[in-house]
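ok so heres the complex, three chains, lmk if somethin looks off
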Amino acid sequence: MPELPEVETIRRDLVGPLVGHSVSHLEVRDPRLVAPRGAALLERSLCGQKWQAIERKGKYLDVLLADGSHLIFHLRMTGQLVLRSWKAAQQGGILEKPLGSPYRMLLQFDHGFSLAFFDQRRFGEVFYLRPGRPWPGEKALGPDALNGLSREDFIARLKSKTTRVKPLLMDQHFLAGIGNIYAQEALFRAGIRPTRRAHRLTRSEADRLYDALHVTLLGAIKHRGSTSRNYRDALGHRGSAQDLHAVYRKGGQPCLRCGTTLRAIRLGGRGTVYCPVCQH
DNA sequence: ACCTACCTGGCC
DNA sequence: GGCCAGGTAGGT
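and the predicted structre for the whole thing:
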Protein backbone atom coordinates (compact mmCIF):
# COMPACT_ATOMS: atom_id res chain seq x y z
CA MET A 1 0.00 0.00 0.00
CA PRO A 2 2.34 2.69 1.01
CA GLU A 3 4.50 4.07 -1.72
CA LEU A 4 7.37 6.51 -1.40
CA PRO A 5 5.33 9.49 -0.07
CA GLU A 6 3.59 7.39 2.59
CA VAL A 7 6.82 5.75 3.76
CA GLU A 8 8.54 9.14 3.80
CA THR A 9 5.72 10.62 5.89
CA ILE A 10 6.04 7.81 8.41
CA ARG A 11 9.81 8.18 8.45
CA ARG A 12 9.58 11.87 9.27
CA ASP A 13 7.00 11.18 11.98
CA LEU A 14 9.29 8.63 13.65
CA VAL A 15 12.61 10.50 13.59
CA GLY A 16 11.87 13.05 16.31
CA PRO A 17 10.27 10.70 18.86
CA LEU A 18 12.55 7.68 18.34
CA VAL A 19 16.06 8.65 17.22
CA GLY A 20 18.37 8.67 20.24
CA HIS A 21 16.28 6.09 22.09
CA SER A 22 16.30 2.33 22.22
CA VAL A 23 13.87 -0.56 22.37
CA SER A 24 13.59 -2.05 25.85
CA HIS A 25 11.01 -4.70 25.14
CA LEU A 26 9.70 -6.45 22.09
CA GLU A 27 6.42 -8.29 21.69
CA VAL A 28 5.88 -10.38 18.59
CA ARG A 29 2.31 -11.50 18.08
CA ASP A 30 2.69 -12.93 14.60
CA PRO A 31 5.68 -15.29 14.65
CA ARG A 32 5.72 -15.41 10.86
CA LEU A 33 6.85 -11.81 10.82
CA VAL A 34 10.26 -12.68 12.30
CA ALA A 35 10.66 -16.24 10.98
CA PRO A 36 12.90 -18.06 10.49
CA ARG A 37 15.27 -16.65 13.13
CA GLY A 38 12.64 -15.94 15.72
CA ALA A 39 11.56 -13.27 18.16
CA ALA A 40 14.05 -14.19 20.87
CA LEU A 41 17.02 -13.47 18.65
CA LEU A 42 15.51 -10.23 17.43
CA GLU A 43 14.87 -9.14 21.00
CA ARG A 44 18.47 -9.94 22.05
CA SER A 45 19.87 -8.09 19.05
CA LEU A 46 17.65 -5.03 19.24
CA CYS A 47 17.10 -4.27 22.91
CA GLY A 48 19.25 -1.58 24.46
CA GLN A 49 20.60 -0.40 21.10
CA LYS A 50 20.14 3.26 20.39
CA TRP A 51 18.37 4.20 17.12
CA GLN A 52 20.91 6.41 15.34
CA ALA A 53 18.98 7.30 12.21
CA ILE A 54 15.88 6.37 10.25
CA GLU A 55 16.31 6.43 6.50
CA ARG A 56 14.20 5.49 3.52
CA LYS A 57 15.24 3.63 0.39
CA GLY A 58 12.37 3.36 -2.03
CA LYS A 59 9.56 1.84 0.02
CA TYR A 60 11.89 0.43 2.69
CA LEU A 61 12.44 2.03 6.08
CA ASP A 62 15.98 1.51 7.30
CA VAL A 63 16.77 2.03 10.99
CA LEU A 64 20.49 2.39 11.70
CA LEU A 65 21.34 1.00 15.14
CA ALA A 66 24.22 1.91 17.44
CA ASP A 67 26.46 -1.05 16.50
CA GLY A 68 25.99 -0.51 12.76
CA SER A 69 23.30 -3.17 12.36
CA HIS A 70 19.99 -2.35 10.69
CA LEU A 71 16.32 -2.91 11.33
CA ILE A 72 14.43 -2.88 8.04
CA PHE A 73 10.69 -2.54 7.54
CA HIS A 74 8.66 -3.01 4.38
CA LEU A 75 4.93 -2.33 4.76
CA ARG A 76 3.83 -3.96 1.49
CA MET A 77 0.10 -3.39 0.95
CA THR A 78 -1.46 -2.78 4.34
CA GLY A 79 1.34 -2.28 6.85
CA GLN A 80 1.11 0.53 9.39
CA LEU A 81 3.67 1.73 11.91
CA VAL A 82 1.85 3.62 14.64
CA LEU A 83 3.56 5.46 17.45
CA ARG A 84 2.01 5.72 20.87
CA SER A 85 2.97 6.14 24.49
CA TRP A 86 2.66 3.36 27.04
CA LYS A 87 0.16 5.44 28.95
CA ALA A 88 -1.99 5.83 25.86
CA ALA A 89 -1.74 2.10 25.30
CA GLN A 90 -2.87 1.35 28.84
CA GLN A 91 -5.76 3.77 28.64
CA GLY A 92 -6.59 2.42 25.21
CA GLY A 93 -7.63 4.12 22.06
CA ILE A 94 -6.70 7.80 22.16
CA LEU A 95 -5.46 7.09 18.66
CA GLU A 96 -7.68 6.11 15.80
CA LYS A 97 -6.74 2.47 16.07
CA PRO A 98 -6.95 1.06 19.59
CA LEU A 99 -4.01 -1.07 20.65
CA GLY A 100 -6.46 -3.91 21.06
CA SER A 101 -6.53 -4.35 17.27
CA PRO A 102 -4.37 -7.19 16.12
CA TYR A 103 -0.86 -5.81 15.71
CA ARG A 104 1.87 -8.12 14.48
CA MET A 105 4.61 -6.61 16.61
CA LEU A 106 5.03 -4.01 19.34
CA LEU A 107 8.32 -2.29 20.16
CA GLN A 108 8.48 -0.61 23.56
CA PHE A 109 11.08 2.09 23.98
CA ASP A 110 13.08 3.18 27.02
CA HIS A 111 11.39 6.59 27.16
CA GLY A 112 7.78 5.52 27.34
CA PHE A 113 6.95 5.38 23.65
CA SER A 114 5.99 2.31 21.72
CA LEU A 115 5.66 1.50 18.05
CA ALA A 116 2.98 -0.90 16.84
CA PHE A 117 3.16 -2.72 13.51
CA PHE A 118 -0.38 -3.33 12.19
CA ASP A 119 -0.80 -5.22 8.92
CA GLN A 120 -4.19 -6.51 7.81
CA ARG A 121 -2.95 -8.63 4.92
CA ARG A 122 0.26 -9.73 6.65
CA PHE A 123 2.47 -9.18 3.63
CA GLY A 124 4.72 -6.75 5.49
CA GLU A 125 8.28 -7.67 6.41
CA VAL A 126 10.86 -6.95 9.09
CA PHE A 127 14.54 -7.83 8.87
CA TYR A 128 17.33 -7.45 11.39
CA LEU A 129 20.72 -7.31 9.71
CA ARG A 130 24.29 -7.33 11.00
CA PRO A 131 26.50 -4.46 9.78
CA GLY A 132 27.15 -4.56 6.09
CA ARG A 133 24.64 -7.29 5.29
CA PRO A 134 22.11 -6.40 2.58
CA TRP A 135 18.44 -7.19 3.07
CA PRO A 136 16.73 -9.48 0.58
CA GLY A 137 16.20 -7.46 -2.56
CA GLU A 138 18.42 -4.52 -1.59
CA LYS A 139 21.11 -5.14 -4.16
CA ALA A 140 18.55 -5.20 -6.96
CA LEU A 141 16.89 -1.97 -5.82
CA GLY A 142 17.07 0.83 -8.36
CA PRO A 143 17.84 4.46 -7.49
CA ASP A 144 15.38 6.19 -5.20
CA ALA A 145 12.81 8.11 -7.22
CA LEU A 146 13.35 11.30 -5.20
CA ASN A 147 16.87 11.16 -3.83
CA GLY A 148 18.92 9.09 -6.19
CA LEU A 149 18.39 10.11 -9.75
CA SER A 150 19.45 12.95 -12.01
CA ARG A 151 17.39 13.97 -15.00
CA GLU A 152 20.01 12.72 -17.45
CA ASP A 153 20.30 9.37 -15.69
CA PHE A 154 16.55 8.96 -15.74
CA ILE A 155 16.24 9.72 -19.41
CA ALA A 156 19.15 7.45 -20.30
CA ARG A 157 17.56 4.61 -18.33
CA LEU A 158 14.20 5.15 -20.03
CA LYS A 159 15.87 4.95 -23.44
CA SER A 160 17.38 1.58 -22.60
CA LYS A 161 14.02 -0.11 -21.92
CA THR A 162 11.49 -1.30 -24.47
CA THR A 163 8.75 -2.19 -21.96
CA ARG A 164 5.61 -0.17 -21.34
CA VAL A 165 6.33 2.90 -19.30
CA LYS A 166 3.83 2.40 -16.49
CA PRO A 167 4.93 -1.06 -15.35
CA LEU A 168 8.51 0.17 -15.80
CA LEU A 169 7.98 3.06 -13.37
CA MET A 170 6.60 0.56 -10.86
CA ASP A 171 9.57 -1.79 -11.31
CA GLN A 172 11.66 -1.33 -8.17
CA HIS A 173 14.79 -2.46 -10.04
CA PHE A 174 14.35 0.46 -12.43
CA LEU A 175 13.32 3.09 -9.89
CA ALA A 176 12.61 2.62 -6.21
CA GLY A 177 9.55 4.06 -4.55
CA ILE A 178 6.88 4.38 -7.26
CA GLY A 179 3.77 2.19 -7.00
CA ASN A 180 0.39 1.94 -8.65
CA ILE A 181 -1.00 5.27 -7.45
CA TYR A 182 1.87 7.58 -8.30
CA ALA A 183 2.81 5.88 -11.58
CA GLN A 184 -0.70 6.66 -12.86
CA GLU A 185 -0.79 10.17 -11.42
CA ALA A 186 2.65 11.12 -12.79
CA LEU A 187 1.77 9.81 -16.27
CA PHE A 188 -1.42 11.85 -16.28
CA ARG A 189 0.51 14.93 -15.24
CA ALA A 190 3.06 14.32 -17.97
CA GLY A 191 0.38 13.67 -20.61
CA ILE A 192 1.78 10.22 -21.45
CA ARG A 193 -0.23 7.02 -21.96
CA PRO A 194 0.66 4.22 -19.56
CA THR A 195 0.99 1.82 -22.51
CA ARG A 196 3.75 3.74 -24.29
CA ARG A 197 7.09 1.99 -24.77
CA ALA A 198 9.71 3.67 -22.64
CA HIS A 199 12.38 3.95 -25.35
CA ARG A 200 9.91 5.59 -27.73
CA LEU A 201 9.26 8.59 -25.50
CA THR A 202 10.56 11.82 -26.99
CA ARG A 203 13.07 13.94 -25.15
CA SER A 204 10.39 16.42 -24.15
CA GLU A 205 8.06 13.65 -22.96
CA ALA A 206 10.85 12.15 -20.86
CA ASP A 207 11.58 15.61 -19.47
CA ARG A 208 7.94 16.10 -18.56
CA LEU A 209 7.81 12.68 -16.93
CA TYR A 210 10.85 13.40 -14.80
CA ASP A 211 9.31 16.67 -13.64
CA ALA A 212 5.89 15.08 -13.16
CA LEU A 213 7.32 12.37 -10.93
CA HIS A 214 8.93 14.92 -8.67
CA VAL A 215 5.95 17.25 -8.51
CA THR A 216 3.59 14.32 -7.85
CA LEU A 217 5.74 12.75 -5.14
CA LEU A 218 6.56 16.02 -3.39
CA GLY A 219 2.92 17.10 -3.48
CA ALA A 220 1.87 13.79 -1.96
CA ILE A 221 4.45 14.09 0.82
CA LYS A 222 3.21 17.60 1.53
CA HIS A 223 -0.28 16.13 1.98
CA ARG A 224 1.06 13.33 4.16
CA GLY A 225 0.34 10.52 1.72
CA SER A 226 -2.73 9.02 0.09
CA THR A 227 -5.27 7.18 2.22
CA SER A 228 -7.29 5.06 -0.16
CA ARG A 229 -8.30 2.73 2.63
CA ASN A 230 -5.63 1.31 4.93
CA TYR A 231 -2.83 3.80 5.00
CA ARG A 232 -2.23 5.72 8.23
CA ASP A 233 0.72 7.90 9.22
CA ALA A 234 2.76 7.16 12.34
CA LEU A 235 0.22 9.04 14.47
CA GLY A 236 -2.60 6.89 13.14
CA HIS A 237 -4.03 9.67 10.96
CA ARG A 238 -5.13 9.54 7.35
CA GLY A 239 -3.29 11.38 4.60
CA SER A 240 -5.03 13.80 2.23
CA ALA A 241 -3.05 13.34 -0.99
CA GLN A 242 -5.94 11.29 -2.41
CA ASP A 243 -7.70 14.65 -2.85
CA LEU A 244 -5.06 15.49 -5.47
CA HIS A 245 -5.60 12.34 -7.52
CA ALA A 246 -6.66 12.92 -11.11
CA VAL A 247 -6.93 9.32 -12.34
CA TYR A 248 -6.20 6.72 -9.67
CA ARG A 249 -9.36 4.61 -9.25
CA LYS A 250 -11.38 7.11 -11.26
CA GLY A 251 -12.14 5.01 -14.32
CA GLY A 252 -15.48 5.99 -15.89
CA GLN A 253 -15.44 9.45 -14.34
CA PRO A 254 -14.90 12.62 -16.40
CA CYS A 255 -11.35 13.89 -16.79
CA LEU A 256 -10.88 16.95 -14.59
CA ARG A 257 -8.99 18.66 -17.38
CA CYS A 258 -11.05 17.90 -20.51
CA GLY A 259 -14.21 16.11 -19.39
CA THR A 260 -13.58 12.96 -21.44
CA THR A 261 -14.51 9.71 -19.69
CA LEU A 262 -11.39 8.25 -18.07
CA ARG A 263 -10.49 4.79 -19.38
CA ALA A 264 -9.68 1.85 -17.10
CA ILE A 265 -7.46 -0.96 -18.36
CA ARG A 266 -5.24 -3.64 -16.85
CA LEU A 267 -1.51 -3.41 -17.36
CA GLY A 268 0.85 -5.97 -15.90
CA GLY A 269 -2.06 -7.26 -13.85
CA ARG A 270 -2.67 -3.91 -12.18
CA GLY A 271 -5.61 -1.55 -12.56
CA THR A 272 -4.64 1.46 -14.66
CA VAL A 273 -6.65 4.59 -15.50
CA TYR A 274 -5.80 7.30 -18.00
CA CYS A 275 -7.41 10.02 -20.08
CA PRO A 276 -7.53 9.00 -23.75
CA VAL A 277 -7.49 12.66 -24.81
CA CYS A 278 -4.95 14.26 -22.44
CA GLN A 279 -2.48 11.38 -22.53
CA HIS A 280 -0.79 10.43 -25.84
C1' DA B 1 4.24 -10.60 -20.79
C1' DC B 2 1.58 -13.39 -18.30
C1' DC B 3 0.48 -16.37 -14.49
C1' DT B 4 0.50 -17.70 -9.13
C1' DA B 5 1.21 -17.13 -4.43
C1' DC B 6 1.17 -14.74 -0.11
C1' DC B 7 -3.38 -12.73 3.17
C1' DT B 8 -7.67 -10.19 4.74
C1' DG B 9 -11.61 -7.56 3.90
C1' DG B 10 -14.79 -4.38 1.31
C1' DC B 11 -18.00 -4.02 -2.19
C1' DC B 12 -21.43 -5.53 -5.92
C1' DG C 1 -19.69 -15.91 -4.75
C1' DG C 2 -16.50 -13.23 -7.43
C1' DC C 3 -13.67 -9.35 -8.05
C1' DC C 4 -10.81 -5.88 -6.39
C1' DA C 5 -7.00 -3.70 -3.43
C1' DG C 6 -1.26 0.78 -2.08
C1' DG C 7 3.55 -4.97 -3.25
C1' DT C 8 6.80 -8.25 -4.61
C1' DA C 9 8.94 -12.88 -5.62
C1' DG C 10 8.86 -16.75 -8.31
C1' DG C 11 7.64 -19.48 -12.17
C1' DT C 12 6.64 -20.39 -17.30
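quick notes: The beta strands of chain A are 23-28, 51-57, 60-65, 70-74, 79-85, 103-109, 113-119, 125-129, 263-267, 270-274. thats all i got rn
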